[in-house]
Amino acid sequence: MLPGELLILRRETPSWAKYPRCLIIAGRLRSTIGFCAGVAGRRAATYGQRVNPTAHSPAGEPTLRPSTVGALRASGHVQRTVKAELRENLLLLMRSGAPRFPGVVGFDDTVLPDLERALLAGHDVVLLGERGQGKTRLIRTLVGLLDEWTPVIAGAELHEHPYDPITPASRARAADLGDDLPVAWVHREDRYAEKLATPDTSIGDLIGDVDPIKVAEGRTLGDPETIHFGLVPRMHRGIFAVNELPDLAERIQVGLLNVLEERDVQVRGYVLRLPLDLLLVASANPEDYTNRGRIITPLKDRFGAEIRTHYPLEITGEVALVRQEAELVAEVPEHLIEVLAVFTRAVRSSPSVDSRSGVSARFAIAGAETVAAAALRRGALLGETEPEVARVGDTEAITASLRGKVEFEADAEGRELELLEHLLRRATAEVWRRHLGGVDLTELVAVAAENAVLAGDGVRSAELLGQFERVPALGTVLSRLGMDAEVTPARAASALEFALEGLHLTRRLAKDVLDDGRVVYGGAPDGAGGHG
């Protein structure tokens, strides 16, 4: 290291949040090892970069930090355990009123208070919940409670604090170099790792194994430095998450228990006492977690807190979640997002759906994205020039594509599509009544009944509106649906079609589907074949 320079481990690739299946783990000096959950292989992910102390980081923060352990002591730096660090940073956020778990929706009054109490108590945590309840998303937000930068021994394989080396190699270096022991700084994102538990997960993945390369370099098999550490030791002074914990084989769970409680890392006859400092967080399905034999009792006993998650309790939470997570390629009005939210809740509560499996929040998110794609496709095929807006007819595309996301009971076999279509119609009618139930649409019913109105995939927005000299009550409908701020033909057509569909679902207007996919409200035009 040149005079006046220091070493900072800085990420060259985007953060782990952009690639949720990848585990980025800081490792040796000048390079690190990237572990992908459930996937073997290595790839460079970060690097140790020398920087000028007068320069500034990309975030605008000064990069001037102590570069030796002597300078670190002189700066007044105080070592904290990771659980104390999480506790103190959480308290700071609570006192300031700042967001503590960004991106987490619907848990404010239920799950989050329990999690905060667990973190303040310094407990390891297991989150229990059905699929798609946001367990992993919640776990990943814990990274934001760590210090942004923390000192480590430069060149050490683990994130060892310069005041407290734990591996034989680092202890020897510290004794030899004294206050000149080099210090590097790692970002909090590099102090988090997660592993999707699978039946083939090995002790080597989690704890470690003999590194044949180190043996080939001349070290003896009895040398502790021949061990290649697994994910758990590498997250020393960080957070380690295990997704679907019950899927770990019992013998692997025993190894994890040993690390957490006895602090002994045992690899092929090696015994190293490593006082690991980490927060362990796990997720599990309640059915698997409570089944005898799926998780050993001593490991279950080591978790200080067991927290149940849930799907959004209110429609507003479901809508907010879809708005936050869905990547929409066309505009989807709020009332259609609400239809999808009501539809999702109806599927969850249906007696024909396996309640133990649950219906993921991704069901509604994928539904919204499919509706937007259907609108975009319709606009492209019809040659629409203005940005497309989804209509209620576009929601019919979701039942076939979402059928695979639902586990049905045996008595629903063979009629899954019929069941989903029925629940979607009920959801549409419920949202229609909520927004337009009190609107006087008598004139619209009369006009549509007298002159058949063509709608659906094959009808442009201008063509749909052009079938009326004046659309009765359109202004009121747009206002009730929250679409009156900036009215365009596409938005007006979307509101009109929703009003017509609701009138049909409430048995006030006939509806017929033509062979070409177009829809007729009020009766089929002369000579047009169709089916009801």
Short description, anyone?
With 532 residues, the chain is of the alpha/beta class. It is built from 20 helices and 19 strands. A hairpin with a 7-residue loop joins strand 2 and strand 3.
Task: Describe the 3D structure.
The protein has helices at 69-74, 82-96, 111-121, 135-140, 168-177, 203-206, 212-216, 231-234, 250-262, 286-290, 297-302, 315-325, 334-349, 361-382, 398-402, 416-436, 442-450, 461-466, 474-480, 489-505, and strands at 6-11, 22-25, 33-36, 46-51, 125-128, 149-153, 183-187, 192-196, 208-210, 227-229, 238-243, 264-267, 270-273, 278-284, 305-308, 453-456, 511-514, 518-521, 530-531. The chain has 532 residues and is of the alpha/beta class. The radius of gyration is 29 Å and the shape is elongated.
Helix/strand layout:
Blueprint: E1 6-11, E2 22-25, E3 33-36, E4 46-51, H1 69-74, H2 82-96, H3 111-121, E5 125-128, H4 135-140, E6 149-153, H5 168-177, E7 183-187, E8 192-196, H6 203-206, E9 208-210, H7 212-216, E10 227-229, H8 231-234, E11 238-243, H9 250-262, E12 264-267, E13 270-273, E14 278-284, H10 286-290, H11 297-302, E15 305-308, H12 315-325, H13 334-349, H14 361-382, H15 398-402, H16 416-436, H17 442-450, E16 453-456, H18 461-466, H19 474-480, H20 489-505, E17 511-514, E18 518-521, E19 530-531
Parallel strand pairs: 1-7, 5-14, 5-15, 8-11, 11-14
Antiparallel strand pairs: 1-4, 2-3, 6-7, 9-10, 12-13, 16-18, 17-18, 17-19
